[in-house]
Amino acid sequence: MHDTEKQQFFGLMADVYAFYHRDTSRFALNVWWEAMKPFDYQAVNEAINRHCVNPDNGQYVPKPSDIVKLLRGSTQDSALVAWAKVDKVVRTVGTYRSVTFDDPIILLVLQDMGGWIALGTKKEDEWPFVAREFENRYRGYATRPSLEYPRWLPGIAEAQNSQTGQPVEPPVLIGDAVRAKLVLQSGSDTQRIGFQQLSDREMQEALAPSSPRRLQA
User: Which residues, including other chains, have CB under 8 Å from residue 122's CB and lie 6 or more apart?
Assistant: First the structure.
C-alpha cells in the first residue's frame, strides 16, 4: 500500500474492530499499518474478509500475523493475477502507448525487466519464460516494504515523440481507474537504477590503460 491509502486502511480497521465489538487505538493502527504496507490494499481487504469467515479462528479479532500469513500464502495467486493483467494489456493495448497500472508492483517488476517497450519485443516462444520471471519478481516485491515505483511505463509513441519534441499523450490507465490515478500521482519520475549512455570518446577514456581506477568497496 502507499501513503495515500493510509486513512482508507485505518477506516477499514476501525470497521473490523467494530465488527468484533472491540475498541482500537492509534498505537494498534500504526502497528497494523507497518505490517500491511508491503501488501496491496485490495489483497489486505480480501485477507481480512477470509479471516472473519474462517470457521476455525474467525471468531477472534485478527492479529497482523494472521493476515500476513494469509497474504504470504496468496502471493502466488496475486502474481498469477497480475501477470494475466499484463498479458491481456500487451495483446490488446500493445506497447505503442504508455501505460500505468492500478498495482504499483507491476510497474516495479516491468521496469526491472527492461520496461514496457522491451516487453513488446518478446517472441511468443519466449512468453512462458517471461511470465515465470515476472511472477518470481512479483512475489519477491509483494513481501517487501514499500519501494519507489515509476508513475507510468513509456510506450513507443512517447519515446519517439519525446526525441522529436512532439506532444506526448497521457498514459492509459489499466485496471481500476481510481487506483491507477493514485499510482500515477504517488509514483516517482526517477529511475531506481540509474544508467547513462557513454559517448565513443568517454568509452575510449574509460578503457585507456594509462590511469586505471579501482572501484572502492
Answer: 130
Residue by residue, DSSP assigns 43-97 as: HHHHHHHHHHT-TTTTTSPP-HHHHHHHHHHTHHHHHHHHHHHHHHHHHHT-SSS
C-alpha count within 13 angstroms, C-beta hemisphere, residue 129: 5
pTM of the predicted protein model: 0.61
- At residue 129, the 3 state secondary structure works out as helix
Instruction: Express each pLDDT in 110-168 by its tens digit.
Output: 999 999 999 999 999 999 999 999 999 998 887 676 678 899 999 999 999 988 889 88
Q: Are 120 and 94 in contact (CB under 8 A)?
A: yes
Distances (CA, A) of 10 to 24, 185, 203: 10, 21, 53
Phi, psi of 188, rounded to the nearest 5 degrees: -110, 145
Q: What is the dihedral of CA 138, 142, 148, 152, to 10 degrees?
A: 50
Q: Which residues pair with 188 in a beta bridge?
A: 150
CA angle centred on 65, ends 63 and 69, rounded to 5°: 125
Distance of alpha carbon 198 from alpha carbon 43, whole angstroms: 43
